[in-house]
Amino acid sequence: MEEKSKVLVVGATGKLGRELVMASVAASHPTYALVRDLSIVSSPSSSNSDKWVLLQSFLSHGVHLLQGSFDDYESLIEAVKQVDVVICAVPSKNALEQKPLIRAIKEAGCIKRFIPSEFGADPTKVQILGMDYDFYEKKAEMRQFIESEGIPHTYISCNFLMRYLLPSLVQPGLDSPPRDEIKIFGDGNTKAIFVKDCDVAKFTLCAIDDPRTLNKTLYLRPPGNICSMHELVDMWEHKIRKALRKIYISKEELLKAINGTPYPKNMDMIFIYSAFVKGDNTYFDIDSSGVEATHLYPHVRYTTVSQYLDTLV
Question: Left, alpha or beta for 130 (phi > 0: left; psi -120 to 50: alpha)?
């Protein structure tokens, strides 16, 4: 049997990071997790009890815990030298903080694949640059840096994670789907894409040793996960057996609301405008710089939007 790549997950205790760790374990990769403070393992407290439980779970699954952070370059070098693949899942707001990690990968010279922290819409395709408070510009800058350093890579474009916007049926300010009336943004026909964290992780782990994804973008466009607002509402109405009153919010009204709401409270509306008005998840065809995950890995089972909505009824 071919020896499995050793995988390091940076940002391992985050919501997506922990799924990447467990997907790596499930795929039988020797798995390493970079942790800022390993003293938690031996000295739990009430303030870090959740993280302690998570790290204990990692250990029980054979995950190797390594102490390190972006602020400690030597710790990054030491960690990177122990593995073959690095997957970074730090929050998007910290995207530029990946630069020391990339320098460490360059210096170590042993990494055959780097997966940077993108895990959203393709920053080179979005049409809202200038109104997103540099959210996508930072990710595009990281791509340029990775490529200028000659780092072998794969970008993961999963668009929306299901835990974002979908629990409210794309209703800013709500925590659960409405049962009486619903706002529909734009014409209601533009499609967005939602993928569950654990499924993003499974597809990502499939890609790390695949030559077809080397230096390409892996787009996640699973059938059943590409939905317009009209389709979301239709699914929900069918599940709750009730018609909702529809309130249409035009492009102009949405832009006015965005401009009239201070940052960061307007970010949900900005992402809605991007996906459901401009069509940034789906307006383009995948060209030779990218590949589609479900075409490459048809064996991967994933949660559809309809199945996810079943959990909210």
Answer: left
| Overall pTM surpassing 0.85 (yes/no) | yes
Residues assigned a catalytic role? 139
CA dist 67 and 40 (Å) reads 11
- Model confidence at 188, pLDDT cuts 50, 70, 90, reads very high
C-alpha–C-alpha distance, residues 194 and 51, integer Å: 27
Q: Which helix (H) or strand (E) holds 185?
A: strand 181-185
Quote the CA–CA distance of 147 and 153 in Å, as a whole number: 8
CA distances (Å), origin 226, targets 96, 109, 160: 30, 39, 10
Mention every residue, 6+ apart, whose C-beta is less than 8 A from residue 107: 77
Tell me if 12 sits within 8 A of 64, measured CB to CB: no
Cα separations in angstroms, 35 against 32, 68, 75, 86, 134: 10, 6, 10, 14, 27
**Residues 193/200, Cβ–Cβ less than 8 Å:** no
What lies within 8 Å, CB to CB, of 110 at 6+ separation is 80, 81, 83, 84
| pLDDT classification of 310: cutoffs 50, 70, 90 | very high
